[in-house]
Every structure is written in C-alpha cells, then in structure tokens.
C-alpha cells in the first residue's frame, strides 16, 4: 500500500477511535446561594421536609414537631432567595381533628405535595402515613407501612417522594446494617409494597428525597461528625424494581459547610434543574435554618 494511503487510513482510524472514546458531556452542579431563614415563633425550626412549586416561588416546609409552614420565596434577578414570605402555618392534626403534639405521635419527617394539592406526610415514632386536604384539615390515615429491618424510634420513614403518576416512595433513615442497602417502599392504591433497594454507603443516612422533572429520584443523605457538624450528599438515579440505574453522586459537602440539611426539593428553573435543600436546626440556638440551592446542568 502506498505510504500516502497508509497514512490517510491511519489518520481516519485514529479519528474514529477518538470519537468513540470521547466522554459524554459532563454533569455540572453550580452553587446558587444560601439564605438563612429566621422566625420568632416557638414552632419555628426543626424543618425536615420541603416542597417547592414548579416555578420556584411557592413553598411548603414541614417541621419534625408537626408544624407546616407555607408561603412565597422572593428571588433576585439571578434567582437567589432574598426573602421568605410566610403566608401561613398550621399544627397538623390527627384523624379526629386534634392537634398533634411533638414526640411519639407528632414526629413528622417526610413531605410530598401531590399535583391536586394533597399534602402527604410520613411520621417516625408511630410509623405511619397520613394525608391532608389542606394544612388545617384533619388527617386521613392510610395503611400502615410494613416494619422494615433497621426501623426503630427516631429511625423510621424519613424520606418521602411522589412521582409523576402520583405513587409515593419512601425509605427509612437507616438500613439493618451499614453494609446492607436501604429498602424502598412504594405506596399506591392504599397498598404498600417493596420496590427494590438502594445501595447504602457506611455512615450515610437517608433523610430526604424528591423526584425531579427529569424523572430521576434525588436522594439526600447525611453524615454526622460530632463537634465538626454535618456533611451532606445528594445522589440521583433512575429507580427501577431491579435496582437503581444511571446512578451518580452530584454533591458531597464538607463538615460545617452547611447546617443539618434534611429536606430536598427538585424543580426546573428554566436554566437547569434546581435543588433546594433545607436544614433542621434541632431548635438549638447554635444551629440555623438554611435554604441552600444548587443548579444542575447536563
């Protein structure tokens, strides 16, 4: 073969191999901002769940003492939160209309708001699922979730998410052991069922979840470092009965970078997918309620 043709063939082959080996476009996560939310009411604080409207301007926030806050998020031209306007707050009620007290019956943790406005809440302590037609309504009780390995007092169904079809998914804060995966429960047609598992990495605990507009499940996890505070991690994955697919870790924070992030909401801001996280201050003066936001670009 003439040298010229040989060199041309080698060049074309090299180019083809370079195209095949070229990596896919990277996923980038951009920090948007942090807003410290303050309130003077005794009920303010301890937020363990948050839901954001599709346009990013309305919110519901759930405390672990059975209080629900709702209102508006005022943003600057760059989309950063500049003020939280509280439109109302309500103490959640039991099925008889009696306000729930903090503790065993009132340890509300997971929050999901359906397209029709129904408010869904999971509780620790007495592990259960309840729905509310509005924040002031009496609870509608539903089938009790099955007892899972690792579930115990203060380690029940912490994360709750609702998909586009209206099915609910929940998982406990802990699995049976650090080397065993988190079991995932699905609730549909008033029936609970096991829906696969999600890998657990030692020390990381599941504290929040939400389905994004891309159909992925986003999972918020937390690690506690004693005097060094908390670190947080966000994973996303396609949830299937055969296990997660296309899983990736989007965010891992350093100890003391943020407070005790426990709630996660995922929405579309027009430039990318926005992650809004809220911290649980445990009603302690040394902690704070933070709204932390990132934007995901694929």
From TrEMBL:
<feature type="signal peptide">
    <location>
        <begin position="1"/>
        <end position="21"/>
    </location>
</feature>
<keyword id="KW-0732">Signal</keyword>
<protein>
    <recommendedName>
        <fullName>Phytase-like domain-containing protein</fullName>
    </recommendedName>
</protein>
<dbReference type="InterPro" id="IPR014567">
    <property type="entry name" value="UCP031900"/>
</dbReference>
<dbReference type="Pfam" id="PF13449">
    <property type="entry name" value="Phytase-like"/>
</dbReference>
<dbReference type="InterPro" id="IPR027372">
    <property type="entry name" value="Phytase-like_dom"/>
</dbReference>
<feature type="domain" description="Phytase-like">
    <location>
        <begin position="43"/>
        <end position="283"/>
    </location>
</feature>
């Amino acid at each position: 073969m003439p040298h010229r043709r040989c060199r041309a063939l080698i060049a074309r082959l090299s180019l083809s191999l370079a195209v095949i080996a070229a990596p896919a476009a990277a996923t980038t996560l951009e920090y948007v901002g942090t807003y410290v939310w303050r309130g003077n009411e005794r009920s303010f604080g301890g937020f363990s769940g948050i839901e954001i409207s599709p346009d990013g301007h309305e919110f519901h926030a759930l405390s672990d003492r059975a209080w629900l806050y709702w209102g508006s998020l005022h943003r600057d031209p760059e989309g950063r939160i500049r003020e939280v306007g509280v439109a109302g707050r309500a103490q959640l009620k039991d099925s008889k209309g009696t306000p729930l007290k903090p503790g065993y019956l009132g340890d509300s943790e997971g929050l999901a708001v359906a397209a029709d406005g129904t408010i869904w809440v999971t509780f620790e302590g007495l592990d259960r699922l309840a729905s509310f037609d509005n924040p002031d309504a009496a609870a509608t009780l539903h089938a009790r979730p099955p007892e899972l390995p690792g579930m115990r007092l203060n380690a029940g169904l912490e994360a709750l998410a609702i998909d586009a079809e209206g099915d609910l998914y929940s998982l406990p804060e802990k699995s049976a052991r650090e080397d065993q995966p988190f079991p995932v429960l699905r609730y549909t047609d008033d029936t609970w069922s096991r829906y696969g598992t999600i890998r657990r990495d030692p020390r990381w605990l599941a504290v929040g979840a939400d389905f994004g507009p891309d159909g992925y499940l986003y999972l918020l996890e937390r690690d506690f470092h004693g005097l060094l505070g908390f670190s947080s991690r966000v994973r996303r994955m396609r949830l299937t009965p055969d296990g997660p697919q296309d899983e990736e870790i989007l965010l891992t924070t350093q100890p003391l970078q943020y407070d005790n992030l426990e709630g996660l909401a995922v929405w579309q801001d027009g430039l990318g997918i926005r992650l809004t996280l809220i911290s649980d201050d445990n009603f302690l003066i040394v902690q704070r309620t933070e709204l932390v936001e990132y934007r995901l670009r694929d």
